């Protein structure tokens, strides 16, 4: 006896025979009514077809339905496509239709020129592909080449919605069949990069996320091709786009199979987020960086075991309000600092202001992770700081000073004093004075005591303190301010020299701001020596000469 279910399908197919024949009729209205009739008989009937029956029915009519996708009438193409999509969401084995559907979609979307003229139908076709990828998963393996051929075209489609849906489809495909996708992933990089600067921020966000997945589940070598483009997106006006870059780079540093090869390229991108103007992005970058460090520790436990078991005590001289990075973060920067810092030192004097600002921020963050290991790179770092300290952008100067202060915190005056003072003597520039003042501010009083004479000897040289240049005078006074702030009562030993410098600058000043600063510093110099006022300071350092 025949299965009752077979009779149901046979009856349906019998009932729609005339509609199937009508799909090839010359009259567009006949074709349209035929599609509506097929839908009514199969999807709108009561009771509804069982999924297995629906699959059997679709198998019998899928070919003529796919032929309609080439119909000159857009409405007919739309009806056929919607019907198939609705069926494929229900049938238990949608992968049985891949061999019929994929070649037709390649013909409609995967050609050099756009074959499907309707934007909405191109979007529906890509959505159909995404549906198939998500439902067929591993079964998509044999069709990766065709899928990539389609996506190469749709990712650069003129319609933004098609771009976005294509990105979602590419990500889903990469995750579904990484073993097949790996061989083709590189071919999607170029179209993705062509869309990464699209005018719509949502497109840019989706492209960035897709680049993350395509490389994560594909060929990691493509990191080299995309790094510069991702770096450019860190300047994006949209916080969503910048956050997307931070998330992708963070995930690569955590999970990319060959991430160790790209540490020096990826770390600067992630650390750039730690000084982003948006608090949420700063928190996101900081959390990811911390996770990266923790994972690096766990992966290199043998090499770091001694440091983990017997960690050094927390430094007693550390920038206030700053939490020291974990061991893994410090080690990652230690191993890659020498590869990263030359590029930063170069970019910190770039002709584009946002690049200089971003580089100044990044140098500070890197130095914070590098800690006292920055000693071995001091000459290169100082060269960049000297130049950047004279920048017109106050944000650059601000972070130059913050970075220079870190040198004071992390490097002994025994190391930096001669190097800095030689730089001041040689350049006699505002930049070197700004750096010197900041380094002194970051130093510890006890460490500075034996170097005060050397420092004062340089800043009181006539070639510096007898120059009537307001800017130079102002920053020379900043050095005096730093000395009084850090050395406090130790300034007694150099008080005469500082007093002489202040009086000399006062005599030569050409700007009120310089004069006001001198008066403030005279008061401060008296205070740190516990004198009752400036008059006592004058009395201590001048003498009355009686006339004969």
From TrEMBL:
Biological process according to GO: cilium movement; inner dynein arm assembly; outer dynein arm assembly
Residue span, Dynein axonemal assembly factor 5 HEAT-repeat domain: 316-508
Chain intervals for the UniProt region annotation (Disordered): 302-322
Listed GO CC annotations: cytoplasm
Domain named Dynein axonemal assembly factor 5 TPR repeats: residues: 23-306
Matching InterPro entries: ARM-like (IPR011989), ARM-type_fold (IPR016024), DAAF5 (IPR052623), HEAT_DAAF5 (IPR056497), TPR_DAAF5 (IPR057978)
Superkingdom assignment: Eukaryota
Organism in which the protein naturally occurs: Ridgeia piscesae
One Gene Ontology MF term: dynein intermediate chain binding
UniProt protein name: TOG domain-containing protein
One Pfam family cited in the UniProt record for this chain: HEAT_DAAF5
């Amino acid at each position: 006896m025949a299965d009752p279910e077979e009779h149901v399908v046979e009856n349906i197919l019998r009932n729609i025979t005339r509609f199937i024949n009508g799909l090839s009729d010359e009259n567009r209205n006949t074709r349209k009514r035929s599609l509506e009739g097929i839908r009514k008989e199969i999807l709108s009937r009561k009771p509804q077809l069982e999924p297995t029956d629906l699959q059997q029915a679709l198998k019998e009519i899928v070919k003529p339905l796919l032929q309609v996708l080439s119909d000159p009438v857009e409405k007919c193409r739309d009806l056929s496509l919607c019907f198939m999509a609705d069926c494929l969401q229900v049938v238990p084995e949608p992968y049985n239709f891949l061999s019929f559907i994929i070649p037709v979609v390649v013909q409609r979307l995967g050609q050099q020129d756009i074959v499907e003229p309707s934007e909405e139908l191109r979007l529906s076709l890509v959505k159909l592909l995404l549906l198939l990828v998500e439902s067929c998963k591993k079964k998509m393996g044999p069709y990766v080449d065709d899928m990539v051929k389609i996506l190469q075209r749709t990712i650069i489609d003129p319609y933004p919605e098609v771009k976005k849906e294509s990105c979602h489809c590419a990500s889903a495909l990469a995750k579904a069949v990484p073993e097949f996708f790996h061989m083709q992933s590189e071919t999607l990089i170029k179209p993705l990069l062509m869309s990464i600067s699209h005018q719509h921020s949502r497109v840019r966000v989706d492209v960035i996320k897709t680049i993350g997945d395509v490389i994560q589940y594909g060929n990691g070598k493509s990191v080299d091709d995309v790094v510069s483009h991702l770096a450019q997106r860190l300047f994006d006006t949209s916080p969503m786009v910048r956050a997307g870059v931070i998330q992708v780079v963070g995930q690569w540093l955590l999970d990319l199979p060959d991430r160790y090869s790209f540490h020096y390229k990826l770390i600067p991108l992630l650390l750039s987020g730690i000084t982003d103007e948006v608090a949420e992005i700063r928190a996101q970058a900081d959390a990811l960086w911390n996770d990266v460090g923790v994972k690096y520790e766990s992966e290199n436990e043998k090499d770091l075991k001694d440091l983990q078991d017997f960690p050094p005590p927390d430094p007693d001289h550390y920038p206030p309000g700053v939490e020291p990075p974990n061991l893994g973060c410090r080690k990652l920067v230690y191993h890659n600092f020498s590869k990263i810092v030359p590029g930063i030192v170069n970019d910190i004097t770039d002709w584009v202001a946002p690049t200089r600002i971003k580089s100044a921020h990044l140098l500070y963050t890197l130095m914070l992770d590098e800690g006292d290991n920055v000693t071995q790179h001091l000459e290169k770092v100082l060269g960049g700081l000297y130049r950047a300290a004279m920048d017109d952008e106050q944000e650059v100067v601000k972070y130059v000073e913050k970075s220079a202060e870190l040198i004071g915190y992390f490097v002994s005056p025994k190391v930096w004093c001669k190097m800095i003072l030689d730089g001041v003597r040689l350049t006699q520039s505002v930049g070197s004075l700004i750096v010197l003042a900041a380094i002194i501010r970051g130093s510890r009083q006890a460490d500075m005591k034996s170097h005060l004479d050397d420092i004062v000897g340089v800043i009181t040289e006539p070639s510096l303190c007898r120059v009537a240049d307001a800017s130079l005078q102002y920053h020379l006074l900043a050095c005096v301010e730093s000395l009084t702030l850090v050395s406090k009562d130790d300034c007694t030993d150099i008080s005469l020299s500082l007093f002489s410098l202040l009086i000399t600058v006062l005599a030569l000043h050409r700007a009120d701001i310089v004069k006001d600063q001198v008066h403030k510093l005279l008061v401060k110099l008296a205070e740190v020596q516990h004198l009752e006022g400036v008059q006592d300071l004058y009395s201590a350092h001048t003498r009355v000469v009686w006339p004969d």
